[in-house]
């Protein structure tokens, strides 16, 4: 059974969604690539076998570069308002949306010894928690499947039950 969660990575490209899909064998991540959080450049796709995923956590962060970039554009927009109302408003709107997009909930995925970031706008925190919960369930299921002692005990119990049933005990 495949579970998928889609999310926004920026308010400027609200129409471009990222997604995380996870099933019993793989975690598939798809995120939009953009320039300046505005110009779309396709998708960044990554696949990880569940055996390589060791942990997943969520955290709130502020992207300092995006915050400063947004402040610069917002201030330029405010200063341009007297000369050009439309131009000033466009710059201000771009700066404001960039500032808001710099506030992120980030899902940190550790796979094959490397950390991968999945940025999600902070208003979709519930989706980040859903992704974390789903991947943690996959990791727990993988450990249960590879627990030799527990699997050997179940096999032994089944053999004992079969012997007892065949004897009519």
Topology at a glance:
Layout: E1 3-8, E2 17-22, E3 26-35, E4 39-49, E5 53-62, H1 64-80, H2 85-101, E6 103-111, E7 114-121, H3 125-145, H4 148-167
Antiparallel strand pairs: 1-2, 2-3, 3-4, 5-6, 6-7
Q: Which strand order does the major sheet show?
A: 1-2-3-4
Number of strands: 7
Q: State which percent range the strand residues make up.
A: 35-45%
Specify the helix fraction band. 40-55%
- 3D shape: rod-shaped
**Biggest β-sheet: count, sense, barrel?**
4 strands, antiparallel
- Rg, Cα atoms, Å: 24 Å
What is the SS-derived class? alpha+beta
Q: Overall mean pLDDT score? A: 86
Number of helices: 4
Head-to-tail CA distance between termini: 40 Å
The residue ranges in which pLDDT falls below 50 over 5 or more consecutive positions are none
Name the helix and strand elements from N-terminus to C-terminus, one letter apiece: EEEEEHHEEHH
Written account of the structure:
There is one protein chain. The protein is of the alpha+beta class and 169 residues long. The mean pLDDT is 86. The longest helix is centred in the C-terminal third of the chain and has 21 residues, at 125-145. The strands form two sheets. The chain has a four-stranded antiparallel β-sheet with strand order 1-2-3-4, covered by helices on one side. It has a three-stranded antiparallel β-sheet with strand order 5-6-7. It has helices spanning 64-80, 85-101, 125-145, 148-167; strands at residues 3-8, 17-22, 26-35, 39-49, 53-62, 103-111, 114-121.
Brief rundown of the structure:
By secondary structure, this protein is an alpha+beta fold.
């Amino acid at each position: 059974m495949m579970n998928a969660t889609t999310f926004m990575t920026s308010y400027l490209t609200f129409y471009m969604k990222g997604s995380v899909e996870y099933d019993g064998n793989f975690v598939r991540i798809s995120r939009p690539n953009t320039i300046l959080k505005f110009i779309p450049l396709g998708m960044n796709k990554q696949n990880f076998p569940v055996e390589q995923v060791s942990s997943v956590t969520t955290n709130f962060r502020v992207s300092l570069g995006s915050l400063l970039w947004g402040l610069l554009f917002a201030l330029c927009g405010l200063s341009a308002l007297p000369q050009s109302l439309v131009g000033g408003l466009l710059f201000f709107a771009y700066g404001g949306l960039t500032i808001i997009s710099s506030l992120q909930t980030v899902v940190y995925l550790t796979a094959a010894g490397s950390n991968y970031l999945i940025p999600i706008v902070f208003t979709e925190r519930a989706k980040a928690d859903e992704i974390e919960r789903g991947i943690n369930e996959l990791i727990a299921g993988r450990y249960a499947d590879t627990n030799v002692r527990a699997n050997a005990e179940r096999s032994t119990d089944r053999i004992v039950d079969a012997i007892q049933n065949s004897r009519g005990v």
